[in-house]
């Protein structure tokens, strides 16, 4: 004897699994376009009224302002590599979620200075707009860094 | 012409996909609570009769004993960052699975000594208890390390 | 009022989610068998007529030729650790996909020389053969490296 299946409910569950895949792709596309120096494609991952904080006094409100903070990253670095893992998604609704992930970033500079490293966490609010998942809010918190050119950072809040 | 759909079977398959998501969240929550210095939340990720081995002669049997091994980690490190990836889950049943993942860990000490690094693998047995996935057994095996304060380690078993 | 459910379509969507899990396992099994020094198991992850490029003039066409390039890796390194993340899968069909991922690799040599690091990207074509996902093409592109014994590399194509 088997219990009757809630097929509508099953569809909703599959949709959520698919949404999780798409949100992870968003998180990883960000790293990809950053490392590939695609500032235009990077800013398109954000909604119009987005908020970004890389550090206190280093971020942007709104996609246009964000695009400006990306100016110059192409020539500042010779190469970067952003390794994102530990991605945990919590759905607020079918169209909104909070996401926590961990970032290990390596940077090689155009100027003569040592490679730098950042170990941190991304804390994101993502939303689905016209069927596409985008960043509404992205905050980078640093557990620590080595030789990084940005001296201030948002703390992870270690107890 | 389409073959008839086994809807009950489909439900079971969706459940397994959802279980995989939850198991990954367990693996990543461990890293999160470790880096955030949340020893209480960390120990709650384990079942009562758990087994943990970080190295030969460094581990615990039972959640209470495990909680004691966590004493002092908060003051020993200024910061840590645990980056877990390559997570592969093999289900033993609907309520049990073995999990293999890879860990890159960075540690900054409270004492004056160089940052340390561990490159290794977690090998886990996880179980679903009262609807919640928890660690039954967690073994850390080191591929290698640099400047790490723990000198012994479980080998990965490289051929 | 609910719309009727396309159950056949739902099955196809679940299959795709399951395929994504299996493709990720393929990507992570490669790293596992590399670090465990399992050259035989490594080559079995590839189809017969595979193509591999680790660098210009360093790769193989065909599984047999690939197996030969793996000769000696066991004694060349004391230990390696390959950390793969940012895995993004794009399906071409039910049996074929392109995959992009990011790799952070650490190597400790048998000879007296410093540990080396590679930060890069894997770009893969994977195919499902007799129900099993395998690599058809695998290209490693380096964002950068440190102390690595291979001096040439495929570029990631940073703009």
What characteristics describe this protein?
48% strand, 4 helices, alpha/beta, 7 strands, homotrimer, seven-stranded mixed β-sheet, 159 residues
Helix-strand layout with pairing:
Three copies of one chain form a homotrimer.
Chain A: H1 7-35, H2 39-43, E1 46-55, E2 58-61, H3 63-70, H4 73-76, E3 77-93, E4 96-109, E5 116-129, E6 132-146, E7 154-155
What is the compact description of this entry?
Chain A is of the alpha/beta class and 159 residues long. Helix content of chain A is 29%, strand content 48%. In chain A, strands 1, 2, 3, 4, 5, 6 and 7 form a seven-stranded mixed sheet that branches.
Weakly predicted, low-confidence segments of chain A:
none
* Mean pLDDT metric of chain A: 96
Listing every helix as H and every strand as E from the N terminus to the C terminus, the arrangement of chain A reads HHEEHHEEEEE
Largest interface: A-B, 26 and 32 residues
Q: What is the oligomer described by this structure?
A: homotrimer
Structural class of chain A: alpha/beta
Distance between the termini of chain A: 51 Å
How many whole angstroms does the radius of gyration of chain A measure? 18 Å
Major sheet size, sense and barrel closure of chain A: 7 strands, mixed
Shape descriptor of chain A: elongated
β-strand number of chain A: 7
Helix percentage of chain A? 25-40%
Tell me the β content of chain A: over 45%
> If helices are DSSP runs of H or I spanning 4 or more residues, what is the number of helices of chain A?
4
